[in-house]
Amino acid sequence: MTATSTDILPVILSGGTGTRLWPLSREGYPKQFWPLASDLPMLAETAVRAEGRGFLPPMVVCNEAHRFLVAEQLRGRGARIVLEPAGRNSAPAIAAAALLAEEANPGTVMWIMAADSAVRDVPALHAALAHAAAAARAGRIVTFGMLPTTPETGYGYIESGDELPGLPGVRAVARFVEKPDAARAAEFVAGGRHLWNSGMFVATASTLLAELERLAPDLLHAVRQAVEGAKRDMDFVRLAPEAFVAAPSISIDYAVMERTQHAAVVPASIGWSDIGSWAALWEISDKDAAGNAAQGPVEIIDGRNCFVRSEGIVTGIVGLEDAVVVVTDDAVLAMHRDRAQDVKKLVDALKAKGRKEATEHRRAYRPWGHYEGLIMGDRFQVKKIQVRPGAKLSLQKHFHRAEHWVVVSGTAIVRRDAEEILLRENESVYLPLGCVHRMENPGMIPLVLIEVQSGSYLGEDDIVRYEDTYGRT
């Protein structure tokens, strides 16, 4: 696609883990991949806001472990996916995006945003973006300041200055303020000059790179080496690991925004939330007459101002007020809404005890589909596997386990050593220990099967791959 001087490049940062939304959001499948504020996953919802005339296909910077999730959720949108070998905070991620953007289309205006925020008023967002883009083309680095609706202590604030000459709707930044206590937050809201810091930025790639060169040269040098040494395969840009990890781990706020003379802010009221906690999600959710927000198979009796979400199990609440209850297939969270920021402490405690539920879901996602554990016993386990139409697993073998596959729905082509076997619904195949095997779904509907493993060791690392469509080793 050929860019014009007015095209805007959406840059979506998708490196967060959303710990405070446990047990739904976990490191293996964090909040940006879940539908929280609408029927769309948050990543896809973010991309939809930046589609249409005047927008280039998005660039997404994400954790390498999430690459196939990002590719699947943005399928058909022409996304360029930049893979971080390790999390280094927002400044190195933005630097990498700016280098790639300037290389592709010099002078590109970048609209940088998190993958996990909610916006209710998209037309108002686009109106604010138009003001920000004009300021960006004039050499400013613009952030969006959200008009505060409550004395929120979970956000940083921006103190706005006077409107900039020739740039309607754009103000100077007087200063950035760290997350305040409740009393100071109330003063900010009453004063009318302070705005929530949304973490969205608009600037040309050249302006960002010039300021990074001036204010954080070591960071830019490391990231430039990571980009120059990057490997490209399929839709992915794999940043060179050693160079990227050498970059300081620092936010763009500390590295640039709080030190640059080019900072500007666009005040906006767009129904924004970073959905940083279950309490924040309750705030933006539809509620009943008693103030309860319920999602899934939930029944509430005499409850008030509660948030209750179930991912499948019938969940009943009686006589609770200001409570959060979240139920998944392997964990339950129950707490007072005022303690929403303390979920991270709970996750840290679970990690300290070695509980895999702190970071992993029972369902594990792979580029070909997903699997979930059903039963685990002594020398055996049972899994449910779902394979997308047209997808295939790697050609592989195991040293310590045999497997039995039973097709529940769909059609499978199974390679077992030199054999090729077609399986239909209610048919099965046995894969003895050590045989080289592969499965693919040649059909138009998902392939669902039950896998029974038996052997002395059943870990996921007992696998030797000979060939893989997705470049895994």
TrEMBL record:
Catalysed conversion reaction: alpha-D-mannose 1-phosphate + GTP + H(+) = GDP-alpha-D-mannose + diphosphate
- The EC number(s) given in the record are 2.7.7.13
Looking up Pfam families in the UniProt record yields:
ManC_GMP_beta-helix, MannoseP_isomer, NTP_transferase
The entry's family comment says: Belongs to the mannose-6-phosphate isomerase type 2 family.
Q: Which NCBIfam families match?
A: GMP_PMI
MannoseP isomerase/GMP-like beta-helix domain location, by residue? Answer: 301-350
Can you supply a Gene Ontology BP term from the record?
GDP-mannose biosynthetic process
- Kindly state which keywords UniProt assigns to this record, in alphabetical order: GTP-binding, Isomerase, Nucleotide-binding, Nucleotidyltransferase, Transferase
Its top-level enzyme class, in one word, is: transferase
Q: CDD domains from the entry?
A: cupin_PMI_typeII_C, GDP-M1P_Guanylyltransferase
Transmembrane spans = none
Coiled coil segments of this chain:
none
Where does the record place the Mannose-6-phosphate isomerase type II C-terminal domain? Answer: 354-468
**Gene Ontology terms, MF aspect:** GTP binding; isomerase activity; mannose-1-phosphate guanylyltransferase (GTP) activity
- Highest taxon listed in the record's lineage: Bacteria
- Record's keyword annotation contains Ribonucleoprotein: no
Q: Which PANTHER family match?
A: MANNOSE-1-PHOSPHATE GUANYLYLTRANSFERASE
Q: Which organism is it from?
A: Neoroseomonas soli
Its name, as the record gives it, is: mannose-1-phosphate guanylyltransferase
Domain Nucleotidyl transferase residues, every copy: 10-289
